[in-house]
Amino acid sequence: MTIEYSTPYRRTSKIPAEPGTPYFIEKGLGDRAHLFGDLVTVYAGGEQTENAFNFFTVEGPKGDLIPAHRHDDTHEVFYVTDGAVRVFVEDAEGRQQERLLTSGDFGFVPKSCTHAYRIERHHSRIVGVAAGPGGTFERFFENLGTPTDQVGLPPRPYVPAPEKFGIVPQRFDVTFLPDHRWRTR
């Protein structure tokens, strides 16, 4: 038996909208969204944690580099559970590095550090956690992408309308840096 909640973001969700409510979610049944070729599943967000942190997964096929971006108020964790993901990061002094993370590997990106990633193997999965004084950004994915009830990857990549890129990122502490160049390779 599962309990369904209604939230400000969805008609039905397995995540209670108010903090302080214990809950459990089966694998893959959190709030899901398609963005580009990926499936993002949110299991806990700002509403449940009083904006202390969020917890989500991103899974997808081998693909293109996610554009360089930063979160001015949010620290971000990358933990790879399946496959391989290459993470690119630039620290506050401009030093760049990249690292290939495989199953069981962990990466941490402090707030205000420019970063990007690329899924290097098909069917890779990242567990993400974000936390910071400004709140959490997990609702970015369904606002830029599209909410879905599907458990799998999108049948076709979902590319957001151009006007969404001008509105949605600012609401969720995401600053895209389209002119950023990685010098690590």
TrEMBL record:
Q: Where on the tree of life does the source sit, at the highest rank?
A: Bacteria
Entry-linked InterPro entries: Cupin_2, QDO-like, RmlC-like_jellyroll, RmlC_Cupin_sf
**Coiled-coil regions in this chain?**
none
All copies of the Cupin type-2 domain together span 60-119
Full protein name = Cupin type-2 domain-containing protein
Source organism: Actinomadura napierensis
